[in-house]
Structure prediction request, 168 residues.
Amino acid sequence: MRVFHRPRGAGPPYNRPMTTDLTTDLEKRFGFLVVDVGRLYGKRYDELAKSSLELTRAQCRMIAYLAHYGDMNQASLAERLEVAPISAGRLLERMEEGGWVVRTPNPADRREWLVSLTPKAAGALNGARRVGDEVQAEALAGFTPAEAEQFGRMLQRVRANLGALVER
Prediction:
């Protein structure tokens, strides 16, 4: 049975199908598939990053976020990494000891520290991207370039749909 619904806050009625089929087959459940793909993708990335970069996936993510968003405080970094601030602090300590990041006092607020990349981390960023490209190629093996591009656009739409509801 297909039921059409109108999303909360939507203007004109939408004719988007809402399934009422509550299947228990996890291979057909969108949420389980997305999480499982993310888990497997992350494990594979971790394998390649540890062997070629001597960095973990979490460390690569931290470097990527700092490169993309610029210097930020520990709380903002923890939020981006989706970890508790104490966990981000431990990761930061290891990264600082390894010469990947530095923490400096925030001139706008002396109570907090800003995390910045070092030249060593900036140099590792290309390696981290290469690992990501390799895992992506492995994950999308058998897809045509057009299918891979379409799949990426579909995921962006899913992210936009959920982002509009979660990040209001």
